[in-house]
Recover the amino acids of this structure.
């Protein structure tokens, strides 16, 4: 779809196709990564309807909330510290996953990861669309610049916003499943701090090497978390049988 829209835009020079190009360019990789996570051998309870709604609402509410809070911080401090950006955006992306905890009672271990990845993906899509729109204006309509931005941000989104929110939402879901016990809450707070630290480092550095290192760390932590959640019920039954 993206290739067809891009080809049509180049051949017709019709500016009406630009919104479609930006949307599909921004959403392609995040959507693919959500589908990839949904196909992992985890214990999921939510359907793709909930996941899609989370991506849409989580992205819109997250971007709006983060934009307002960052603007207020700028007015208050005359500057936005990178740490403040990480704290605000990581919290904003958790608004919809936290609300779903109130609605969803039949909680499965994998739901937190999938819902978090979807919310982070929605945030990444809206943010990338904004950056692409600004780049289009600043470059006087240079599609090569817009294409480069869409490709780079699209490829990096699974290792950035999506990985960080998948991690924090999984920890939040786990804490809720354990009735908010002290250790589970502390673990959730610790993983949130890790996500904020990775986010702050990502915003602070400006080199491909740094991004690659942070991407590897972010995805490695997410992979480790998902493997810990894989087939938890089967593992529990196996332990119970072994004990018996």
């Amino acid at each position: 779809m993206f290739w067809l829209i891009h080809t049509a835009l180049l051949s017709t020079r019709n500016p009406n196709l630009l919104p479609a190009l930006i949307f599909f360019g921004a959403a392609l990789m995040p959507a693919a990564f959500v589908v990839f996570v949904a196909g992992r051998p985890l214990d999921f309870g939510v359907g793709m309807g909930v996941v899609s709604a989370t991506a849409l609402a989580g992205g819109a509410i997250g971007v709006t909330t983060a934009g307002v809070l960052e603007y207020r911080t700028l007015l208050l401090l005359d500057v936005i510290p990178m740490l403040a950006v990480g704290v605000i955006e990581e919290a904003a992306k958790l608004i919809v996953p936290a609300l779903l905890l109130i609605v969803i009672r039949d909680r499965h271990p994998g739901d937190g990861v999938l819902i978090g990845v979807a919310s982070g993906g929605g945030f990444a899509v809206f943010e990338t669309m904004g950056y692409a729109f600004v780049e289009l204006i600043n470059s006087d309509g240079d599609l090569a610049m817009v294409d480069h931005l869409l490709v780079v941000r699209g490829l990096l989104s699974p290792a950035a916003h999506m990985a960080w929110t998948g991690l924090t939402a999984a920890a939040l879901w786990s804490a809720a499943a354990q009735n908010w016990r002290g250790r589970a809450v502390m673990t959730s707070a610790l993983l949130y701090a890790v996500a904020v630290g990775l986010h702050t480092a990502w915003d602070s550095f400006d080199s491909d090497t740094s991004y690659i290192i942070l991407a590897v760390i972010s995805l490695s932590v997410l992979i480790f978390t998902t493997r810990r959640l894989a087939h938890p019920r089967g593992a529990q039954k196996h332990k119970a049988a072994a004990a018996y």
User: Anything to note?
Assistant: The two ends are 55 Å apart (CA to CA).
